[in-house]
Design a protein that fits this description.
The structure holds two protein chains of two kinds. By secondary structure, chain A is α+β, with helices and mostly antiparallel strands. Chain A folds into three domains: 29 residues; 54 residues, Orthogonal Bundle (3-methyladenine DNA Glycosylase II, Chain A, domain 3); 59 residues, Alpha-Beta Plaits. Chain A contains six helices and six strands. In chain A, the strands form three sheets. In chain A, strands 1-4 form a two-stranded antiparallel sheet. A two-stranded antiparallel ribbon of chain A has the order 2-3. In chain A, strand 2 and strand 3 form a beta hairpin. The longest helix of chain A is centred in the first third of the chain and has 24 residues. By secondary structure, chain B is α/β, with parallel strands linked by helices. Classes of the chains: A alpha+beta, B alpha/beta. Chains A and B meet through helix 5 and strand 5 of A and helix 9, helix 14, helix 21 and helix 23 of B. Bound molecules: iron/sulfur cluster (4 copies).
């Protein structure tokens, strides 16, 4: 009996020591939840969630803010976040819903640009090149479509243009294509709705 | 290692799991010397016929090209160039329907062949003596050779030697039904083909070279064996679909199984198509780039199925004409297992197009539910579980699809071929794969955006630190100067003062009167006083009020500018008049406002009063008919209309000055746009104001982000306000479907409430205003987002607070009254 108590006490002390040591030695720096959440956010950095960037929103989510406020992420991101945090899937916030739209990138009508550099200051990812009193232009590949550059432009020459589909990003929805049958004899083409599915 | 290579040499073959035996349908296809197809009226050469990125166009519309002239160029092996397949003229460089199942138009060079085809711009043939691996590589790239079997992988990229190579496999398996272009090539061009193989051997120096042919092509095997030397092994492999797949072929010939995502080169093995080998021979020995290929034309509707030499860029419809086909047919590019229906017969033959199939559209068997028979799993050559993949594809479960190795699927169609429920499995996989790819792309983009965002933040921080350092340095320098000079600066200043006084005195003496001296002194004192007062004002006056004033001024200026030009012919004069007017107008409210705000204890109330006053002043301005000038547009209360008018005017102006040089016009346009924007912004003054102020609060350095946040918040506040307004008001604002309209209604209501409240407070007793303001203040901190530096000017401006205040104060007022 005594031996058992002593043995258990000793064991408890040893494991307690190990656990205590591990807690200090292998302490996780930062907020792992916020990191994971940030991984799932679209990184558009647009501020539509009410935070100045995706990281602050991730931190706010980790602190318990609603997960349905990111319009660029859409419902899919909400679902992923709910999955990660183990909560019910909420609907995308109503105001976020109306902002949901096809992915676009900014385009500067270069002839109307006066080179005020306002857009450069607004762009969160430095996707605009230009200099004072010089024409500005967008690096389409780097643009996240956050629309932050549109409002500051004094001449309203920035426009958001939806990204066109190419054969590489095509979604293989075969029954959406209009099959054209070329009439070789007459050289005219007529479109026929063909259902290949 | 030794024994492994020996085993291969001795002719041992391995088996792979799965695979099917569809009818080959090749017996009736004529594999004699292929006929060269005549040139079509127009050839469409797509810039990208390979995996990778397109090269840069180096011809212009209208330029004449010779056969084999490069149309694009690039130094990078992942962007092989394309070449003119004939002599002719470039008539267009534009998007044309691509040879892709989507039929999406992609950039292509359109060439109209000339009537005489006697010139070519081939490269100089390479001499045997000077051949080096690098030279061969470079030539293969210059000739635009990319994989001619399946995906179109740039050949130069594949043969630039970087890893030791054990086995080079030349793929002549051609396992798909109908396709016989490789068969035709091997039978008729065995010798040059094997010469190409030895060139590849030279470039890669492998330990063993195998040419693999399925055993249902005895003609090809015989021709190759007759031409092959000792160093090249020609191996017949059993006919089974899909033995021509890279992984399957490697496994059959070497017994090595490639793991998921592994390339054959990782195991010291490389696979090239026979077509590629032939093209290499043409490029090295004749300097001829890849401008034509053998294409099989077959199918139920084709009278004489056969092979043709077809120039790259020939429209498929032109090929069909050869057999009097066209009008109503649908063509399949590729074989019957992996091919795809061409959505547009104007699509061109590209480097990877080995077969055009014109079949009866098969009566589509009705797709039925999966009965879990497991046939597909038996057939799958990749060892996947097609029925599981199908299940997850239908449920859009990308995560599970990934874990079941969807991306390893080679889309061979073996599973769909055996499926008793006639489920078009591959179609499901393709869609899901596209989704997975899109997801990956998004993740990549997000990662990059994050990196750039972080980099920008770092940069801004650095810049700020530098600026601070500079400022500090400058301050120190000043200090040092002061100290270094000891008491001198002070003395010097004193000296200066004395000098001045002397000067003044001198003047006085000269003039001999006392009056001027006095007036000067008085003036100086006055100026000092005025300055002090201004400084004090600037300190005590609320910055928000100042901002409101500035905004009001700006607005009025816009109105003025809009109205004036209407009557004046000279826009510049008109603008000047307008500006002067605006200034005059702005002076009145400024005086009125300047007196009071400092007395108010609560800056929020002060700001509200200021804003209300500014508005009132504006309104009276607008309603008072100006006697000196007719103001047609300023009376219109709708800023949007004003903006429209401004825009129209700008346009008219632009139209009136067509002769003015382009730069002036551009500047004028820019100015007009800026004006129009400003005018349209004043449409939402109530909404914008809190935004502007709120942007100061946000801890972010980016004002645009702050503005966006403020906008989001304002919207939320509006929504709240709306619901509250509904509660307080009998008439619901919801009736309008348009949210913008709803917002406007809400705004108007809030304004009305605020006005009422103000009136009440003023009517009853002025003390009340203070009490309202004190009841307001607890609301503010709740909405203030950035606790660290929350200035009073900032907190009061937050939209949410304002909306809430208005509604709450009004309702409390009502209840007070009731009591
Ligand atoms: S709304 Fe979404 S994308 Fe935009 S900053 Fe917030 S989390 Fe990032
Ligand atoms: S270019 Fe404009 S839309 Fe694109 S990321 Fe930059 S600010 Fe956003
Ligand atoms: S904000 Fe507009 S006008 Fe100014 S530089 Fe950018 S694009 Fe040009
Ligand atoms: S299409 Fe994909 S799943 Fe079906 S048999 Fe071929 S590799 Fe397997």
């Amino acid at each position: 009996m005594i031996e058992a108590i002593i043995a258990l006490t000793v064991l408890a002390a040893i494991f307690g020591g190990i656990l205590g040591f591990a807690a200090i030695r292998y302490r996780v720096e930062g907020d792992p939840i916020a990191d994971q959440v940030e991984q799932l956010l679209p990184q558009t950095q647009c501020g539509q969630c009410g935070h100045p960037g995706c990281r602050p929103y991730a931190e706010a989510i980790a602190k318990g803010e609603a997960i349905n406020k990111c319009p660029p992420g859409g419902q899919e991101t909400v679902e992923k976040l709910a999955d990660l945090l183990g909560v019910e899937v909420p609907e995308l916030d109503a105001s976020a819903q109306e902002k949901e739209k096809p992915k676009s990138v900014a385009f500067i009508h270069e002839e109307a640009c006066i080179g005020c550099t306002k857009c450069i200051q607004a762009c969160p990812v430095d996707a605009i090149v230009g200099a004072n009193k010089q024409m500005h232009t967008i690096i389409t590949k780097e643009c996240t479509g956050c629309e932050l550059c549109v409002a500051p432009c004094p001449t309203d020459c920035i426009e958001m243009r939806p990204i066109a589909q190419t054969s590489r990003t095509w979604d293989w929805q075969l029954n959406k294509i209009d099959i054209a049958v070329i009439d070789v004899a007459s050289g005219s083409a007529k479109l026929e709705e063909a259902d290949n599915a | 290692m030794r024994s492994w290579l020996d085993k291969i040499k001795q002719g041992q073959l391995w088996r792979y799991q799965g695979g099917v035996h569809p009818a080959t349908k090749k017996d009736n296809i004529d594999c004699g010397k292929p006929e060269t197809l005549t040139l079509a009226k127009q050839l469409v050469v797509p810039l990208q016929q390979h995996i990778g990125s397109p090269a840069k166009v180096c011809v212009e519309v209208g330029s004449t090209v010779k056969t084999g002239q490069a149309l694009t160029e690039s130094r990078f092996y992942q962007s092989p160039p394309v070449h003119a397949p004939c002599c002719g003229t470039v008539v267009a460089i534009e998007a044309r329907p691509s040879a892709h199942p989507s039929g999406i138009s992609e950039l292509a060079v359109v060439i109209e062949p000339s009537s005489i085809q006697n010139e070519h711009a081939f490269m100089a043939p390479l001499l045997e003596a000077e051949l080096t691996p690098e030279l061969i590589c470079e030539r293969v790239h210059q000739a635009g050779i990319s994989g001619m079997g399946g995906a179109g992988f740039p050949a130069a990229l594949k043969i630039s030697p970087n890893k030791p190579l054990n086995v080079l496999i030349i793929n002549g398996a051609e396992c798909e039904p109908y396709i016989s272009s490789d068969d035709c090539l091997m039978r008729n061009y065995a010798e040059p083909l094997l010469r190409g193989v030895s060139l590849l051997e030279k470039a890669l120096s492998p330990k063993l070279v195998i040419v693999a042919v399925e055993d249902d092509k005895p003609g090809a095997i015989k021709a190759l064996q007759a031409a092959a030397g000792d160093n090249i092994v020609v191996r017949a492999i059993p006919t089974k679909y899909p033995s021509g797949g890279e992984k399957q072929l490697v496994q059959v010939l070497t017994g090595r199984e490639l793991k998921a995502g592994q390339l054959p080169i990782d195991q010291g093995i490389l696979v090239h198509n026979v077509g590629t080998a032939y093209a290499v021979q043409r490029a090295v020995d004749h300097g001829e780039p890849l401008i034509s290929r053998i294409v099989t034309l077959a199918g139920d509707h084709v009278g004489e199925p056969r092979n043709y030499w077809v120039a790259i860029g020939t429209p498929v419809s032109h090929l069909l004409e050869q057999q009097k086909l066209g009008t109503h047919h649908q063509a399949i590019m590729g074989g019957s297992m992996m091919g795809f229906m061409l959505p547009n017969l104007a699509s061109p033959i590209v480097k990877t197009a080995n077969c055009i199939l014109v079949n009866n559209t098969p009566a589509q068997a009705q797709e039925q539910a999966c009965i879990r028979c497991g046939e597909c799993a038996q057939a799958c050559p990749m060892g996947l579980l097609p029925q599981q993949l199908y299940w997850y594809a239908k449920g859009d479960d990308l995560e599970k699809s990934r874990s079941y190795k969807l991306m390893d699927c080679i889309e061979c169609g073996a599973c769909a071929y055996v499926c008793p429920s006639a489920i078009p499995l591959v179609q499901y996989y393709r869609q899901t794969k596209a989704k997975v790819r899109a997801e990956d792309l998004l993740a990549q983009e997000a990662e990059r955006a994050k990196q750039r965002f972080d980099a920008r933040k770092l940069r801004l921080e650095k810049e700020q630190a530098e600026r601070k350092a500079r400022q500090k340095q400058a301050a120190e320098r000043r200090l040092q100067q002061a100290q270094g000079a000891g008491n001198d600066p002070v003395k010097a200043a004193l000296q200066r003062m004395q000098n001045k006084q002397v000067e003044i005195k001198a003047i006085e003496n000269e003039q001999g009167e006392l009056v001027p001296d006095n007036s000067a002194a008085i003036a100086a004192r006055k100026a000092r006083k005025a300055q002090a007062r201004a400084a004090k004002d600037a300190k005590t006056t609320n910055p928000a009020v100042a901002a409101a004033l500035a905004r009001a001024k700006a607005k009025r200026e816009v109105d003025g500018e809009q109205s004036a030009p209407a009557k004046s012919a000279n826009p510049a004069v008109a603008a000047a008049i307008a500006r002067a007017k605006a200034k005059r107008n702005s002076e009145q409210p400024a005086e009125a406002e300047g007196s009071k705000p400092a007395t108010s204890a609560n800056p929020a109330v002060a700001a509200a009063i200021a804003r209300a006053k500014a508005k009132k002043a504006q309104r009276t301005d607008a309603s008072q008919p100006d006697s000196t000038a007719a103001k047609p547009s300023s009376t219109s209360s709708n800023p949007a209309v004003a903006a429209a008018i401004a825009r129209a005017k700008a346009k008219k102006q632009a139209a009136e000055q067509p002769s003015a040089n382009a730069k002036d016009a551009a500047v004028a346009a820019a100015v007009a746009r800026a004006k129009a924007k400003k005018a349209s912004q004043s449409e939402q003054p109530e909404l914008e104001r809190p935004e502007n102020d709120a942007s100061k609060t946000a801890s972010s350095a980016n004002p645009a982000v702050a503005a966006a946040i403020a906008r989001a918040k304002a919207k939320k506040a509006q929504a709240e306000q709306q619901t509250q307004g509904e509660n307080a008001d009998a008439k619901p604002a919801k009736s309008s479907a348009n949210p913008a309209v709803a917002a406007a209604i809400a705004r108007a209501k809030a304004k009305k409430l605020a006005q009422e409240q103000q009136q009440q407070t003023q009517n009853e007793h002025s003390e009340d205003a203070r009490s309202v303001s004190s009841s307001d203040s607890p609301v503010e901190p709740a909405d203030a987002t950035s606790p660290p530096k929350r200035s009073a000017a900032v907190a009061k401006a937050i939209a949410a607070a304002k909306a809430k205040q208005a509604a709450k104060a009004a309702s409390s007022m009502e209840s007070d009254n009731d009591e």
